[in-house]
Specification:
Chain B: Its main location: nucleus. Chain B: GO terms for molecular function: cullin family protein binding; ubiquitin conjugating enzyme binding; ubiquitin-like protein binding. The complex is a heterodimer of chains A (777) and B (216). With 777 residues, chain A is mainly α. In chain A, 64% of the residues lie in helices and 5% in strands. A 3-stranded mixed sheet of chain A has the order 1-2-6. A 3-stranded antiparallel sheet of chain A has the order 3-5-4. A 3-stranded antiparallel sheet of chain A has the order 7-9-8. Chain A starts with 17 loop residues before the first helix and ends with a strand. The longest helix of chain B is centred in the C-terminal third of the chain and has 18 residues, at 198-215. Helices cover 61% and strands 4% of the residues of chain B. In chain B, helix 4 (60-69) packs across helix 5 (79-89), helix 7 packs antiparallel against helix 8 (135-146) and helix 7 (111-125) runs antiparallel to helix 10. In chain B, the strands form 2 sheets. In chain B, strands 1-2 form a two-stranded antiparallel ribbon. In chain B, strands 3-4 form a two-stranded antiparallel ribbon. The chains are: A mainly alpha (777), B mainly alpha (216). The A-B interface holds A 728-729, 732, 747-748, 751-752, 755, 758-759, 765, 770-773 and B 131-132, 169-172, 178, 182, 193-195, 197-198, 201.
């Protein structure tokens, strides 16, 4: 017993329901179980009846179920006929029938004149294509058992060469479509296509008649459906007879549209109309065309309405950007993006504009808080244009890139080419002002946010190593003089820098931080130690121990100083304590950074003054006497002239000491001012000494230069060691890419370092080449 | 020794065609050295020697001769160096040396030999305590070697004078020769980002700037 599975054939516009077929098959099954044995068949007789049914099926006539079933089994019988099967003959007869049928249809379709051609063709197609689907099912057995087996494999079809004589038999459904193509489409194609193009044209003009849409769509679809069964080149017919002329006609149309619009409109209106047109065309494509054509049509439109007139559009870009005409820009963006080389001009204009705006806001800043103005102005420019790019350009990465370039260029701008850029210093100062204790009343979360934003500016800075130096020095000051607002905020900022720049960058900062907590720990231990041994120092005493390598305090700034008697015991005790805990470490006292609180009890009111150690040392000499000469004071303390002068002047200026000459000389007599008074009884006089002097700035910048040279030399040696031999340009590139994380070296600086290394014989020029170096092992 | 030299110079008793005699060569050497230091010919001896062969001490031929001897220090010849050089030239008398002077001059015309002499000159002329040559010596040596044939030498000399360079190192020295040989007078083929030492970059910049000044 045989069991058929029904294979369904569905076309684009056809609704061949599986159900119908299934029902037929089931019926077939039941009625055919009787007659499955091959037997003798009279073909001609059988064919007469079958042909009638075929005609009925193909014309969607009413074919009774019984008739269907009986002819279904007739086909089976023919195919398994004994002694010879009639499969081929059946195929040929059917083919012949269909051929004639379509030819007749052709005449019918033509008969109603040009005007009705589309409609008649469409009607005929709908009927035929549905019918052929049913027919395909009727011929199921022939299709499955006979024709399919002869088919070439897919691979042979796609990669092999099919000769023109390959008269392969097709399944009936396919055969029907092939015949339609040959007998109906081929003869009518020109007329049909002309009418189709006309129809679409009217649709463009907005003059389409309502029911024409379905017909046009249906006809176009027939070109696709008719080849749908093909294994390769499915859209050949569609593309050749319809798509190509359609694209051509569309192109012409857009060209004309564009010219017309250009005459009537300015740029803003032009763009709006083009965008509108593009949207319309998209809808139209969806309505009429096969999906493979959508992009092609869009590309044509873009070509003729945008690409061909690029100069016109580009010409307006500059003004549009300058005036920040957002509506126009948001139209310009998609249009330019859709064509080749379109968007570049816009990106460049934006870059220049942002740069100009940025430079404007940071030029000529004056006053004490230049650093705050600089950072906040830059941030507001950045924010403004970031938002603009988000709104108008959809956050496009290329535009963000332009924003970054522009900001980097502004941030690293040098008003005077010979002097270093001031931005790193200003940014460090900005952070310093936020991290320092102040009475400004900004909330903690606001400070946190501002610090987070400052990283945006930090990322643009080229000379990050200069920033690091300034930041480190300011941090050191804050920590030593207890000026930090919040240790958490300090640590958070260091972490942000680490995220932006890596561990190396913040290593020292972290160490400075840990020193602070270690020191406080040590202080506690020291105090317990004193208590334990019942030692009384006479003064209260606390210490910061700093790792020499991590703090930017400079060993050279330590000056000679004779520790006052009142402090001697403490200093000694602590040194003993420390050396007992940590042997092998050298302690260097940094008295010039220390401060003390001194109580003055010889005046009408007692005063508690916080002052620098040297200032205190000077005053302590007056413990037992009211006046001394400068010479005596300086000799007692063994301070150098610079330190002595500075601290003495500050005491004189604050009126605590009186001098009997205008300018202090060794013979000047200093006396305590017994008439001294101050509104406040508790205050400090260290401020002036802590402010950063211009020499310190100079020092920082020149030490940066030295560090950079060492860094570059180390980088060059590293590169040369691994590559052994390298050309000049390649070496420069390697060094540039390695160092760009921290700063942007000039080629001249790199060359100087190369020369220094040649001189030190780490590398040499290769003997025969002008610009090649080799590593000297 | 001064009187005897006059007699020597005009003596025609020496035969320039006699074969080289090492002993004679050394004896001749001894005429220029002093008993305290018999193996080294010093500045005084050098002066006399130059007088005898009729060449000024600053003449470039002396440099070529020193190069032949591979003399280590300018102004001095050791006996070993003397012998080495003169044996190579097959000279053991004044007249023989005089006959070789043209040959020595001609050596400067060969590119490869000249380069060798030029490079030798650096180590020869510099102060052995220092690694680099001081600028004054450098200018003098450059004048000697490149003054006649390098068009831009005068400019380079001016540049050095105005610059803050106090010494010239070997790398710069060698590159100056390369520069003089490969770079056009209008500096059109000079690549400022190339492997030239920074000193030459600065020279080119200076030259271009001064040309602009002159033009305007």
């Amino acid at each position: 017993m045989q069991y058929w599975t029904c294979q369904c054939f569905s076309f684009h516009e056809l609704h061949f329901s599986f159900l119908i077929c299934k029902v037929y098959v089931q019926n077939c099954f039941y009625s055919c179980t009787m007659s499955l044995r091959p037997r003798r068949v009279n073909f001609n007789e059988m064919w007469v009846g079958l042909q009638e049914t075929v005609k009925g099926v193909i014309t969607l006539d009413n074919v009774p179920r019984a008739t269907w079933n009986s002819h279904f089994s007739d086909i089976y019988a023919m195919c398994v006929a004994y002694p010879e099967p009639f499969a081929d003959r059946l195929y040929q007869e059917t083919k012949c029938f269909l051929d004639n049928h379509v030819k007749v249809l052709l005449e019918k379709v033509r008969a109603n004149g040009e005007a009705n051609l589309l409609k008649c063709y469409h009607q005929a197609w709908v009927e035929y294509s549905t019918g052929i689907g049913y027919l395909h099912c009727l011929y199921l057995y022939l299709n499955q058992q006979h024709i399919k087996k002869q088919k070439l494999s897919d691979a042979e079809v796609i990669y092999g060469t099919l000769g023109p004589d390959t008269q392969e038999q097709m399944e009936i459904g396919e055969l029907g479509l092939e015949i339609w193509k040959k007998n109906m489409v081929e003869p009518l194609k020109e007329n049909l296509v002309n009418l189709l193009l006309e129809g679409i044209h009217y649709d463009r003009l907005g003059e389409a008649s309502p029911n024409i849409t379905d017909i046009v769509q249906g006809v176009i679809n027939s070109f696709v459906s008719v080849e749908d069964y093909k294994r390769k080149g499915k859209l050949e017919l569609y593309q050749e007879i319809f798509e190509a002329p359609f694209l051509q006609a569309s192109g012409e149309y857009y060209k004309r549209e564009a010219s017309k619009l250009l005459q009537e409109c300015d740029v803003s209106q032009y763009m709006e109309r083009v965008i509108q047109r593009l949207e319309e065309e998209t809808l139209r494509s969806n309505k009429f065309l096969h999906s493979s054509s959508f992009d092609k049509v869009k590309a044509r439109c873009e070509q003729h309405m945008v690409a061909d007139h690029l100069a016109f559009l580009h010409g307006e870009c500059k003004a549009m950007v300058r005036e920040e005409r957002c509506k126009d820009l948001s139209n310009m963006y998609p249009l330019l993006r859709s064509v080749k080389d379109g968007i570049g001009v816009l990106i460049v204009e934006l870059l220049e504009h942002i740069k100009a705006q940025g430079l404007e806001t940071v030029r000529g800043l004056k006053g004490d808080n230049v650093h705050i103005q600089f950072v906040e102005n830059m941030l507001s420019v950045h924010k403004k244009y970031k938002e603009l790019i988000q709104d108008v350009f959809n956050g496009d990465q290329s535009f963000i890139g332009a924003l970054d370039k522009a900001c980097a260029s502004v941030v690293n701008h040098r008003p005077n080419p010979k002097m270093a850029c001031r931005s790193p210093e200003m940014l460090a100062k900005y952070c310093d002002s936020l991290l320092k204790k102040s009475s400004k009343g900004i909330s903690e979360s606001e400070i946190d946010e501002k610090l987070a934003q400052s990283i945006t500016i930090f990322k643009y800075i080229d000379d990050k190593d200069i920033f690091q130096k300034f930041y480190a020095r300011m941090l050191a000051k804050r920590l030593i003089h207890s000026q930090s607002q919040s240790m958490d905020a300090e640590e958070a900022m260091i972490n942000r820098l680490k995220q932006a720049c890596g561990y190396e960058f913040t290593n020292k900062l972290h160490r400075m931080f840990t020193d602070m907590s270690v020191s406080s720990d040590l202080n506690n231990k020291f105090n317990s130690f004193l208590k334990l041994d019942n030692i009384d120092l006479g003064i209260s005493f606390s210490i910061y121990i700093l790792q020499a390598g991590a703090w930017p305090l400079g060993q050279n700034s330590v000056t000679p100083f004779a520790v006052p008697q009142e402090l001697e015991k403490s200093v000694q005790m602590f040194e003993n304590f420390y050396h007992n805990h940590f042997s092998g470490r050298k302690l260097t006292w940094l008295h010039h950074l220390c401060q003390a609180e001194l109580k003055l009890s010889y005046l009408k009111k007692p005063y508690q003054i916080t002052m620098q150690t040297f200032q205190m040392a000077i005053l302590l000499l007056f413990e037992k006497t009211d006046s001394l000469t400068c010479k005596e004071v300086q000799e007692s303390l063994q301070l150098n002239s610079e330190q002595f002068g500075k601290h003495l002047m500050s005491l004189i200026e604050s009126k605590i000491l009186l001098a009997n000459t205008e300018a202090p000389t060794p013979e000047t007599v200093l006396t305590l001012n017994f008439e001294y008074s101050n509104k406040r009884t508790k205050f400090r006089i260290t401020a002036a000494l802590q402010r950063e002097s211009p020499q310190e700035v100079e020092q920082t910048l020149s030490s940066v230069d030295e560090d950079r040279k060492l860094y570059l030399q180390a980088a060059i040696v590293r590169v040369m060691k691994s590559r052994k031999i390298l050309r000049h340009n390649a070496l420069i590139q390697e060094v540039l890419s390695q160092s760009k994380v921290t700063f942007a070296p000039s080629i001249s600086m790199i060359k100087k370092c190369i020369e220094a290394l040649i001189d030190k014989q780490y590398i040499e020029r290769t003997p025969n080449s002008a610009d090649e170096y080799s590593y000297v092992a | 020794m001064g009187d005897r030299s006059g007699v020597r110079r005009f003596s025609k008793t020496e035969d320039t065609s006699s074969p080289f005699n090492q002993k004679r060569c050394i004896t001749w050497f001894r005429e220029y050295t002093s008993p305290d230091d018999p193996d080294v010919l010093g500045p005084e001896g050098m002066e006399k020697f130059c007088e005898d062969i009729g060449v000024e001490p600053e003449n470039v031929v002396m440099l070529v001769l020193a190069w032949k001897m591979n003399a280590r220090q300018m102004g001095f010849f050791t006996q070993q160096e003397w012998l080495r050089g003169l044996m190579d030239l097959q000279c053991d008398s004044i007249s023989k040396v005089q006959s070789k002077l043209d040959y020595l001059r001609l050596l400067l015309n060969d590119q490869v030999t000249f380069k060798s002499i030029y490079r030798y000159a650096y180590d020869f002329a510099r102060d052995k305590d220092q690694r680099s040559m001081d600028i004054e010596t450098a200018k003098a040596m450059l004048q000697l070697l490149l003054g006649k044939h390098w068009t831009l030498f005068g400019q380079f000399n001016n540049f050095l004078e105005r610059s803050k360079y106090k010494v010239i190192n070997k790398d710069q020295w060698c590159n100056i020769l390369e520069f003089s040989r490969t770079i056009a007078n209008d500096l059109s083929n000079y690549d400022v980002d190339g492997a030239w030492p920074v000193m030459l970059d600065e020279f080119v910049e200076w030259l271009k700037a001064s040309k602009d000044v002159r033009r305007s």
